[in-house]
Amino acid sequence: MINRSKWATAFIYLASICVVLVSVYPFVYAVSTSLKSGTALFNTQLLPSDADLRNYRALFEGAQPFGRSLLNSIMVALLTVSLALLMGVTAAYALGRIRFKGKGLLLVCILSVSMFPQVAVLSGMFELIQSLGLYNKAIGLVLPYTIFTLPFTVWILTTFMRELPIELEEAAIMDGCGPLRIIFQVFMPLLWPALVSTGLLAFIGAWNEFLFALTFVINDTERTVPVAISLIAGTTAFEIPWGTIMAGSVVVTVPLLLLVFFFQKRIVSGLTAGAVKG
Amino acid sequence: MIALMLIVAVWPLARSIWFSFTDTNINDIASSEFVGWENYFGEYGLFFNPHEDGGFWASDWGTSVRNTFSFAIVSVILETLTGLGVALLLNQEFKGRAWVRTAVLVPWAIPTIVSAKMWGWMLNDQFGVINAYLISWGLISQKIAWTADPTYALWAVVLVDVWKTTPFMALLILAALQTVPKDCYEAAHVDGVHPLRVFWKITLPLIRQPLLVAIVFRLLDSLRVFDLIYVMTANSSSTISMSGFVRREMVEYGNMGFGAAASTSLFLIIFLTAIVFLRVARVKLSQDNP
Question: Running DSSP on this structure, what letter comes out for residue A1?
């Protein structure tokens, strides 16, 4: 390591403090707001003088079924993740292992689909969802979410799949394994880290999606949480219940923050695998 | 299997393009008539509408195109710079680096809707904490309606987007920085090369490829921006994005055919931008990158 001057060290620490403050402060302020009520809301001090959980209670007992939205989101996100992983592993095996013509082109196509503007398929997807009888049902969101996560899942799993030793597969073939058994009994155990990475990213994607969730679902009871938060309204049109909104925001964000803290390494490797190795 | 995937992905796109040549209404999809290029170049079409006094850029669609591009270009430039800064910082060895890295991830982990609401509250004109601080520091004399005033609204959105996506940029750039061999730096240090020169002549060329890939990702992502603007500025006409325009036409006004024409144009615009950018920057997306 190269020795640094005192000034450089001081600068690094100062910059770090700034970066940490800017990154964390808005969320801390949101938590603080969610604990304030009444006129205390309009006081900008960070530590609430008399903190209580009234906003959280209002959130779950209010006119909108926020608890139900939370359940919807969990269900939709989990289903999307399992479907995407199941199909992703199979497709990644084909792309990473089996040689066929036009593979490079196909990979580029897959990548470009993941960068695709969701809105470009909005009308077509609307018709598809409606004709499948999935309109206005939370579960219907699994279909567009899976389509939009899958390319990314396949892309990352393919880069991981390529790193596995080919001898392993050859040995399995010698022992008479079919492709499906190779995938599920030989590769799956080795791919766990990659599966966790992609699964987490797919989960976060599905949890946060807004456009489809806003458009394909009308009933309050079928909404997912991002839409529910954006629609929290006060008793009158001129009063925005910031306390309740912030409470909802905290409830939605905390699970994600916990995931990110515990699986930080996995998430970072998943995010960077696509871009750097790709 | 892959064929099935492609069909499921391509079918809605194909249908959307088809709708753009019809006068479909969202409430009755089955009955529609083929109208050719009417939605694009017709009397009330997206382009060359003779009823628009101020020309193309004064129409709602023109505004949304301009908004989206100003948003995308400014925020991608800013977040590349901040991301690069944070990545260079995290690439240094110092105590507590792991903590800083975790803290940096926080904005990335927060859902877009939540960050939109959170910043909307902080930027609130009457009770927002940002106005309160700026006034107490004497930087502004009056409270500013950041998200409602058309002069500031778009830049407020850019600010939030930069805040939210800097971590993504920083992580990608950091990963690239860590592939730069240490010997290069040591050699430069022994030769007494100025740190800035090291950065321009060694670091930047070596991370160029991953940096450009990250920029492409972010550029395409920000050109389809919808949720942030929709939630923060209530989708007012002055800040509407292309995606917001499509959704408004299609869902709120019910003009599915017209909306589809806009969405198809948006798709082509983004596609062309991507190609132009890749050509100009000479990025290779194929798998045999160094």
Answer: -
A23 → closest Cβ in B11, B15, B103: B103
Q: Which residues 142-161 of chain B have a CB within 8 Å of chain A? A: none
Determine which of A5-9, A234-238, A244-248, B172-176 has the lowest per-residue pLDDT on average. Answer: A234-238
B175 touches chain A (CB under 8 A): yes
More confident residue, B196 or B73: B73
Is the Cβ pair B111, A253 closer than 8 Å?
yes
What is the pLDDT confidence band of residue A1, given thresholds at 50, 70 and 90?
A: very low
* Chain A contact for B136 (CB, 8 A cutoff): no
* Residue B259 contacts A, CB cutoff 8 Å: yes
Minimal Cβ distance to B111: which of A19, A107, A207: A207
Q: Choose the mutation target among B23, B79, B104, B113 for the interface with A, i.e. most A CBs under 10 Å.
A: B113
Q: Is the CB of residue B267 less than 8 Å from the CB of residue A117?
A: yes
Shortest distance, CA A173 to any CA of chain B (angstroms) = 22
Percent of chain A topping pLDDT 90: 4
Rounded alpha-carbon distances, angstroms, from residue B151 to B70, B139, B156, B238, B239: 13, 18, 10, 9, 10
Residue A210: closest CA among chain B residues belongs to which residue? B227
Q: Which stretch of DSSP H or E encloses residue B77?
A: helix B60-90
Is residue A201 within 8 A of residue A152, CB to CB? The reply is yes
Any chain A CB within 8 A of the CB of B132? yes
Q: Are B118 and A229 in contact (CB under 8 A)?
A: no
Give yes or no for B126 touching A (CB within 8 A). Answer: yes
The one-character DSSP state at B138 is T
User: Where does residue B168 fall: left (phi above 0), alpha (psi -120 to 50 degrees), or beta otherwise?
Assistant: alpha
B-chain CB neighbours of A147 within 8 Å are: 8-9
* Structure token pair of residue A275: 């871009």
Q: Which residue ranges form the domains of chain B, and what is each CATH number?
A: 62-239 (1.10.3720.10)
- Above 60 in pLDDT, residue B287? no
pLDDT at A82 over 80: yes
How far A177 CA lies from chain B's nearest CA (Å)?
Answer: 20
Q: Which residue has the tokens 């910043």?
A: B119
Q: Which two tokens stand for residue B106?
A: 């926080």
- What is the C-alpha to C-alpha distance for residues A259 and B120, in angstroms, rounded to an integer? 25
Mean pLDDT taken over chain A: 80
Phi-psi region at A117: left, alpha or beta (left = phi > 0; alpha = psi -120 to 50): beta
Distance CA(A251)–CA(A21), nearest Å, equals: 22
Q: How many residues does chain B have?
A: 290
pTM over 0.90: no
| Domains of chain A with CATH codes | 6-52 (no CATH), 65-277 (1.10.3720.10)
Which chain B positions have a beta carbon within 8 Å of A115's beta carbon? Answer: 217, 220-221, 274
The model's pLDDT over A27-72, given as tens digits with 9 standing for 90+, comes to: 888 888 888 877 667 676 777 767 777 788 878 876 678 888 888 8
**Residue range A217-227: average pLDDT?**
83
